Amino acid sequence: MRHALTEESLDGAASAWHEWRHSLRWGSVFVLPAWLRAWWDSFGGDGELYLRTLREESRVVGFAPLVVKGGTACFVGDADVCDYLDFVVAPGHERDLFERLLDDLSADGVTRLDLGPVRPDSVVCTHLKDIAHSRGHQVLCRQADVSLELDLPATWHEYLSLLRNRQRHEVRRKLRRLRAAGEVRHRCIEEGTQLQEYLEVFFRLFSLSRDEKARFMTPGMDSFFRALARSMAEIGLLRFGILELDHVPAAMTMGFDYDGWHYLYNSAYAPRFDHLSVGLLCKVLCMKDSIARGTRKWSFLKGSEPYKYRLGGQEGPLYNCLIEMG
Known about the structure:
By secondary structure, the protein is an alpha+beta fold. 40% of the residues lie in helices and 32% in strands.
């Protein structure tokens, strides 16, 4: 079969995603065109977009979302808001993509690939490293962080049985204490006009949270979160979880449901309810809702915060890979 590497645009990739989604391996929500476009519109410009699709006759079998600056190519996105990244390839076409991609990058004067963060099961780690090494390039991969995730069981009772005795007792005790404090309601908002309303509630709670969260939400980050929420809602992946106590929003989660996974992206809570552990319990109740929906995987995402381990998260490494081509 004849393969051709061709230029692509973010708008073109976003428009074609529904056509591509079932034939390509999308490693996570962070590589979807809707996500990449929201990031580029908010933070891009410091470099040149290098987007390429690999076509086998008329069929797209690979997508490379890169930014080139000063002879170095990186993924579209960054570690601050994209927990892990990767190339997008139809299984069996990894070598087809990377042989042509490395040739094309070299012809464009790129001498280094700085790729990360990536998971161990990314095509960067499982294919590109070996292909680059076989071409005589220097490859260096180092652990940059960790990410935690959990295989969800079929029932809430089974989930609780996975926890250590102390943590299971703590979850139940905290839930009882919360319910004794007033009328408790937790629900998930996924679509409709309520999304914009609850986005504003989320930002208000975020501004009330501990100092580092408030500092994180700069004007640029605010713009990105809003663009991301709109983009992901348009393709049906955005999911807010909201915990109310006596009809007052006490805590919220912002996450994404995709391909049997729930990605817990961020959260916020009202400090006046801190004594009731509303931040933690909002996550717990969101997980309970995910189990009821039949979600297979729960990703706590990047970072080693203690609560992730207490709720059953299993740690996996994230790497940064440098490929010297010059």
